[in-house]
Amino acid sequence: MSLYSRQETYSRPSADTRSVKFSERYVMGKRIGDGAFSTVKECISRQDGKKYAVKILAEKNSLYHHEVRSPRTRAAANASHPNCVTMVDVFEEERTYLVLELLSGGSVLDRIVESEFFSEKDAILVTGSILKALEYLHSQGIVHRDIKPENLLYVSNDPSSPFYHTVKVSDFGFSKHDCQVLKTACGTPEYMAPEVLETTSSGYDEKVDMWSLGIVVYVMLSGFFPFLSSSRPALFKKIAAGDFTFPSPYWDCVSDKAKDFISQALRVKSEERISASAALQHQWMTEGVSQCETKLHG
């Protein structure tokens, strides 16, 4: 499910895209991948020949399509940070086209599928990239609301590259800017925080992203979800109760620091959940792990 490729410096075109067609500014290229609500293709700028990714939105999910068009989502998508995928252009025609920077490394999900699970050393590097992005986003009043491995993209797939472990947060379709209280239930069920699923909840805030990150870290280190069930209602009940464990033998060689990091991110009460800034200072992030602790699954 590789979505984007290549790290470059990007500048937003000065022309008003509302009066210009996508095909006037870009040449459509090969298909890169398909998401739940969109198709992603490569495109080339007619102006300078640079390659970008274009996300073409499907109309079938009205909530996603509505959210991605909203001013608060657009403001969030314009976030400028080294660990956030840059949105370059937007075209609203018969379909909506989102032009994004192109990355070559594939997604975190790709690497989980390839290796089954990560060493703690690699997981720490990925988690650091995500936390830096979330710390910035949350400081700007932006909540992503759909943190998951598919939306975490590597800058490079070259092991010799200094950017091989660098990750950028992508897909701001459900993100919101400058909202003190959010109430819409959206995102991906397996990564949703309890307060998002709670119909009687008074709302939620940026801490939902930290819950999702906790799920991501758990999956990176084990290759499976902390909350598993054969039905959605049963899954939601487990999430609401925070009912998860670190089963043997899969977690026997994982450090206590990693387990504590996950446990602090997966606190059911959002006010007790670790923040992005605090997570960056957690022992697992600052001290790392010894060589023996990085060998997982026996």
In terms of topology, how is this protein built?
Elements: H1 22-25, E1 26-34, E2 38-45, E3 51-57, H2 62-69, H3 71-77, E4 87-92, E5 96-100, H4 108-115, H5 120-139, E6 142-143, E7 152-154, E8 167-169, E9 176-177, H6 194-197, H7 207-222, H8 232-241, H9 256-265, H10 276-280, H11 283-287
Antiparallel strand pairs: 1-2, 2-3, 3-5, 4-5, 6-9, 7-8
Helix pairs in contact: 5-7, 7-9
Tally of DSSP helical segments: 11
> What is the CATH class designation of the largest domain?
Mainly Alpha
Give the mean pLDDT: 82
**Got a strand count?**
9
The rounded distance between the terminal residues' Cα atoms is 29 Å
CATH architecture level-2 label of the largest domain = Orthogonal Bundle
Gross morphology is globular
Radius of gyration: 19 Å
Instruction: Bin the strand percentage.
Output: 15-25%
Low-confidence segments: 1-17, 291-298
How would you concisely characterize the structure shown here?
It contains eleven helices and nine strands. The radius of gyration is 19 Å and the shape is globular.
What attributes does this structure have?
298 residues; Phosphorylase Kinase, domain 1; Transferase(Phosphotransferase), domain 1; 11 helices; disordered C terminus; ATP binding; Prot_kinase_dom; transferase; kinase; nucleotide-binding
What does this structure look like?
The protein is an alpha+beta fold and 298 residues long. It has 2 domains: 17-100, 2-Layer Sandwich (Phosphorylase Kinase, domain 1); 108-294, Orthogonal Bundle (Transferase(Phosphotransferase), domain 1), CATH 1.10.510. It contains 11 helices and 9 strands. A 5-stranded antiparallel sheet has the order 1-2-3-5-4. It has a two-stranded antiparallel ribbon with strand order 6-9. It has a two-stranded antiparallel ribbon with strand order 7-8. Helix 5 packs antiparallel against helix 7. The longest helix has 20 residues, at 120-139. The radius of gyration is 19 Å and the shape is globular. The two termini are 29 Å apart. The model is unreliable at 1-17 and 291-298 (pLDDT under 50). InterPro entries: Kinase-like_dom_sf, Prot_kinase_dom, Protein_kinase_ATP_BS, Ser/Thr_kinase_AS. Keywords: ATP-binding, Kinase, Nucleotide-binding, Serine/threonine-protein kinase, Transferase. ATP binds at residue 55. GO terms for molecular function: ATP binding; protein serine/threonine kinase activity.
